[in-house]
Amino acid sequence: MTVSHFNKTFLKLLFIALFFCLNTTYSQPSLPQRTVSATPTQPIDFGTFYVTSAGTITVNWQGIVSTTGGVVIVSSVNARPAIFDITLCQGRNVTLTYSPTTTITNGATSITLILGDTEKGPNGTTFTVDTNCTFITTLRVGGTLDIPDGAVSGGYTGSFSMNFTQS
Length: 167
What we know:
Layout: H1 3-21, E1 37-42, E2 48-59, E3 65-75, E4 82-87, E5 93-98, E6 101-105, E7 110-118, E8 126-128, E9 137-147, E10 162-166
Antiparallel strand pairs: 1-4, 2-3, 2-9, 4-9, 5-8, 5-10, 6-7, 7-9
């Protein structure tokens, strides 16, 4: 092997060794979250009440309770709106849509739950979420129970859906 050939081989091996020793990579920072995430954190609760005849009981998004007709509030201590935590980065807009009514039941009797306005506005409202990805935008939702004559006492269960669409 000649010196010139040795130098070329040595330089090639040196180049390959240096190439594998370089461990630095360059890239753009990761992109922020681009999809909306909504987590229910509190169910709606109407407190304790009794019914003498048909009427309604309402818990608004602020947790304030009111009644009509033969519905009498006993305790509003546990009354509270439903709460959703919404996460979406960079101050993007979210459009809120939902069915305004749903039925809840105790197995024997059904009651209509009418979803009320949220703290961001009524059904179809578009609002801007907080501008930082580490913050959560809280959404409070109120509702009204429309209780018919002859409703049976006891616990009623049901659910409602809310759609959060990035706009």
